[in-house]
Amino acid sequence: MQLFVIARHGESTLNFENRVNGDPGVPVHLTEKGRDEARLLGQQIAHVPLDLCAHTQFSRTRETAEIALAGRDVPFEEQPELGDVDIGELEGRTLEDYRAWKRTHTRRDPFPGGESLDDAARRYAGAFERLLQRPESNILIVTHEIPLRYAINGADNSDELDGPAHQLANATPYLFDEEALGRAVEQIRRVAADTSRRCGRQDSNL
After folding, report:
1. From CA 59, how far away is CA 67, in angstroms rounded?
2. Are 86 and 58 in contact (CB under 8 A)?
């Protein structure tokens, strides 16, 4: 049996400032609170044997993983496809700006200069599927709130990837076996495809 421990990174400086970031080239580090959260994550998984730690290109996920696994001999591997949503021109804007844009657009609409939420969902499903094909038995995945949220709601067969689980605590471990993560992959793809089909039908009636 495979075990996947998935966690969001610790609190970052932009979390604290209520600003958004989808560009891995922008360095965003953990706050002191975030470093404490990463240490607590390490304590929570201290007795879980781990064969691999997958993290994204974003510095806050690597920093969280390094703190959580300090003193442990666990190999690290970057998984770019689990990175945060590319929000294009909204980079560095406030969380309220981001939410205001979402309220007036559908999941299939790309952020200006970025990607759509459905495109990101399909990217996450592919990344999780590839991790399911890995030979390692126990994998820690340090990622971002949105891919974790989609995995939780997908595994629960929710028709809404953003619910019922929505606000997720930083650096908190969520456990999935291969059946649960496989179910998440299928549901994430199904919801993203259904969104595109619904929007396509609406467009045809305009």
Report:
1. 12
2. no
What is the number of structural domains in the chain?
A: 1
Identify the CATH number of the domain in which residue 166 sits.
3.40.50.1240
Q: Do residues 54 and 148 make contact, with C-beta atoms less than 8 angstroms apart?
A: no
Alpha helix stretches (DSSP H) within the chain: 13-17, 32-44, 59-68, 95-103, 117-132, 145-155, 178-204
CA dist., res. 30 & res. 68, Å (int)? 13
Q: How far apart are CA 8 and CA 28, in angstroms?
A: 14
Buried/exposed code over 83-105 (b: 16+ C-beta within 10 A; e: otherwise): bbbbbeebbbeeeeebeebeeee
Residue with tokens 């974003």: 58
Give the number of other Cβ atoms within 10 Å of residue 166's Cβ: 12
Q: What is the mean pLDDT of each run of 10 residues along the chain (206 residues)?
A: 97 97 96 98 98 98 98 98 98 96 95 97 98 98 98 97 96 98 98 71 34
